[in-house]
Write a structure and sequence with these properties.
Oligomer: single chain
Shape: globular
CATH class of the largest domain: Alpha Beta
Number of domains: 2
CATH architecture of the largest domain: 3-Layer(aba) Sandwich
Number of strands: 7
Strand content: 15-25%
Order of helices and strands: HHHEEEHEHEHEEH
CATH topology of the largest domain: Glutaredoxin
Strand order of the largest sheet: 5-4-3-6-7
């Protein structure tokens, strides 16, 4: 390995270590501790709404701006819990999981629960056809990268994320859920 590549790799490792230490300091002591410590990343990490990593259980979720498949803008309603499912058109487990999600959406109508999904494919027309073919009636966005950055960077599908009525992340649930378990998410509205 030549010296230039070696120096760049070393600088990258040092930058990652500094970034990890800064994140740990912010989590443990708050953003002002990083400022007092003279952290160069402090301005980025303490910007309003900025987050170095997805929310952790118990932390408030910073929701990104999201456009739904129908062109409308999605926002979290005040005092509403949210169930978010990350899925893919090519995932057979997602078809069953999303059928349960459609049932949850229908059963929780008028309650303090929002159901949102983020699909991994960029083909809006293909997603529309899939939603129509399977009679899915929940909100769907193609804004997966921004939503994943806020909630979970795991790439497993389906992936269900629950957020309580106060806007705090509750759980990140990997894999397909049984129908009864999905229906039990209705309790979040209480």
């Amino acid at each position: 390995m030549n010296d230039a590549v070696s120096r760049d790799a070393g600088m990258t490792r040092r930058a990652l270590i500094r970034g990890s230490a800064a994140t740990a300091l912010v989590r443990a002591s708050g953003p002002t501790a990083l400022m007092r410590a003279g952290g160069a990343a402090a301005l980025t990490l303490t910007a309003p709404g900025a987050r170095a990593a997805p929310a952790q259980p118990g932390e408030r979720v910073v929701w990104p701006e999201l456009q739904l498949l129908d062109g409308t803008r999605w926002t979290r309603a005040d005092d509403h819990a949210v169930v978010v499912v990350f899925w893919s058109l090519t995932c057979p487990f997602c078809v069953r999981h999303n059928t349960h999600l459609t049932q949850l959406q229908a059963r929780s109508a008028g309650q303090r629960l929002q159901v949102l999904s983020a699909v991994r494919e960029p083909d809006a027309e293909g997603v529309r056809r899939h939603m129509a073919r399977h009679a899915h009636r929940f909100d769907v966005t193609l804004g997966l990268p921004a939503l994943a950055a806020a909630l979970s960077m795991r790439r497993l599908t389906p992936l269900t994320v629950t957020v309580d009525r106060q806007g705090r992340l509750l759980q990140v649930i990997p894999g397909e859920m049984a129908a009864d378990d999905v229906m039990d998410l209705q309790r979040l509205a209480a």
